Structure formats: structure tokens, C-alpha cells
């Protein structure tokens, strides 16, 4: 169980390296990460929501998530799922995320 | 094989015969940033206005060019990517247009009432995008080229509002060339057919990148942008940065570009004729002439423009939808 928690923390840390390319804010700070699970075979499942329905950066973010998470020892595969049934709202952006966005000209 | 090493020249000394202009240059040389128009000398103001005009017009001309890629976009995601790019470029033009308005310019008049033949853009923007692979390769290489221009201003411009305005712009440009690089790699690996199309697109787009920055330093006449530190990178400084960056991208993905690494120089050098220019075929396509020419030929051809001039600008102006849209 301890090992599972450690690896889950590592996955969440890895997801902090993935940014929304339009905002200079990582996906956690954007409030876009809604599910992170790792099963017994080391398969990581990441569920994301999108700020806009037609996000041109979707494939790029999926690729970045897979790259960052797959580098963690013990992870055998990474599945990224877009949660179309969940709503994203600008209120989901963290305070830290707002500060980062502001440095690039986005005042939220 | 004959190669060309791009050797940027040092920036010119900030000197002027006019004591007012010299005082302005001296202030800037100490690192002072200009915040307000009433702090500007006449020449400094003119240089800034010219820079903003070219930048704002250049951004907006991407719109009708990119739109020509819609027909070959393979799926909804690709169409959205083109639309997203267009929306971003409108935003970039808007940012710089708003700055230009501070100088008393009527942006509506400039955008919609300026004669189409007074618009100017890069020749590549005046030829239709052949297909979606050409579009993503253009993003990978030419948004990368454009970003060096805007990044220089964000990092170095002596007019502080311009620096700030370009922060968001540059972040989006990085997204564009990352998007282009991602999908270029995707199509490079998808099939033999798409790989061949990527290489064909690179062969066509790369020379546009080489000539993107205009005349080389030793042939450039006016150096006022550098003297007033509106920019700090010379044409050849940016060209060299772009060649290094584009060559590394090519090496990573696997496509060929006309450069090779020169051990003595410690960097990539051009193996293509330099400079070279294009001709417009009877079918209205841009065809590169792979022979060395004079820079005057390059500039003359840039001034002449591509096959979509002036229609591409007329269309830009006819798309003012007005309040009826809402």
C-alpha cells in the first residue's frame, strides 16, 4: 500500500510537468486532472477535462502525459481518457495557476 | 559540397548626428525602458511605429493563408487546429494593433480600408497551403522562425509595453511550433506515403525559413531598430538561431534539411544555394530555383509577391461581419 501511494505521488508529480500549452500552467493547477489511478499491473489511468471542447492541444497534452508518466519506474502503460461528462470551470484554476498565467499575460 | 556559414555582425554603435536622437540612444544604452510615448524622440517613435505596422499586418495575413488548409484537413481535430491557429494569430495582430493605436493610428482603417496592394507579408503566405501536412510542417518551421522575431522583442525591446504585449504572443507561438512538430513527426511515422509528403513539404518550406529574416547583416541598410534597441538580434543572428533549431528538429524526427554540422564552426551550416529564390509557375505554384542568386533578386521577388496577391488581402477585408453576426 505504501508503495502504491509513493507511485501515485510520483504520477501526480509527473503530471505537474505537463502544461496546458496555451496557458503556461500545469494540468493540476489548471484543474484539468480529475482521475489518477494505477492498477495492479502498473497501468496508470489519467482522466482529464478540457477547458474548451475543441482543444487543438489535446493530442499534444495526451502525448506529454504519456511521456512523463511512462518514465516512472513500475509504470507499464499509460492510458489517458478525456472525461467529456465532467465540466471544467475557470474556478478550477488554483491560485498558483493564476499567478503563473498572469506572468504570461493571462489575468484570470 | 559548398556550404554557407551564417555569421551575424555585431550590432551597430548607437550614434546619431542629431543631439536629441543621441540623447535618446544614450538613455536606452544604459538599459532604461521607455513606458510612454511622450518620452520618445521623433525617430525612435517612427522606428517603433514602423515595427508595429509590419508586425500587426504580418500576423493578420496568416488568416487567409491558413484557411486554405481547411479543405485538406483530415479530421475535425485538424480543422480545429487550423481554426485555433487563426484565432491566435488574430489575437497577436490585435495585441500589436492595440499598441499601434496608442500612436494615434486608426486600426479599423488600417485593417479594412487600406488598399489591398499596400499589404505586405511573407511570400509563403501568398501561396495556398497545398495540404494539411504542408500546414503542420509550416507550423513546425515557420512559427519557429516567427517566434525568434517576437521573442527578441519580448526579451530586449526598449519600449516596455511592447515587451509585455508579446509575452502571451510568444507562449502561443511556442504552442504552434510544438503542435506542428508533433504532427510532423506523426505523419513522418504514419506511412511511406505521408513520410514522402512530409519531406516534400520540408523541401518547400525550409527555403522560406532561410529567407524569412530578409537581407543579411552586411547588406542591410537601416539599422535604426538595433540602434534604438527596438530589437537586439540582427537578421543573421535570428537566421542562425533558426537554422540551428530547425536542423536539430530534423535530426530528431528524421527528415532531411539542406544543412550539415560543421565541426570547425561547431554549428549547422547551410548546404542549399544561398541565397536562392522562387518562380511562380503557370499553375500559380511557388517553385524554388535551386541556384545561387543575388539578394536583390530575392527582395525583388518578395516585393512582387505570390500567386494569391492581392486576392488574399481583399478577402481579408471582405470578412468584416459587423454587428449582424451577433
Summarize the structure.
Chain A contains three helices and five strands, in the order αββββαβα. Chain A has helices at 2-15, 58-70, 95-103; strands at residues 19-20, 25-26, 33-38, 43-48, 77-82.
What can you tell me about this protein's structure?
Helices cover about 35% and strands about 20% of the residues of chain A. Chain A is α+β, with helices and mostly antiparallel strands and about 110 residues long. Chain A has one domain: 2-Layer Sandwich (GMP Synthetase, Chain A, domain 3). In chain A, the strands form 2 sheets. In chain A, strands 3-4-5 form a 3-stranded mixed sheet, with helices on one face. In chain A, strands 1-2 form a two-stranded antiparallel ribbon. Chain B has about 325 residues and is mainly α. Chain B has a single domain, classed as Up-down Bundle (Ferritin). In chain B, a hairpin with a 5-residue loop joins strand 3 and strand 4.
Describe the secondary structure blueprint for this structure:
The complex is a heterodimer of chains A (108) and B (326).
Chain A: H1 2-15, E1 19-20, E2 25-26, E3 33-38, E4 43-48, H2 58-70, E5 77-82, H3 95-103
Parallel strand pairs in A: 4-5
Antiparallel strand pairs in A: 1-2, 3-4
Chain B: H1 19-29, H2 42-60, H3 62-67, H4 76-101, H5 107-113, H6 132-156, H7 160-190, H8 192-211, H9 224-227, H10 235-253, E1 259-262, E2 267-270, E3 277-280, E4 286-289, H11 295-304, H12 311-318
Antiparallel strand pairs in B: 1-2, 3-4
Helix pairs in contact in B: 2-4, 4-7, 6-7, 6-8, 6-10, 7-8
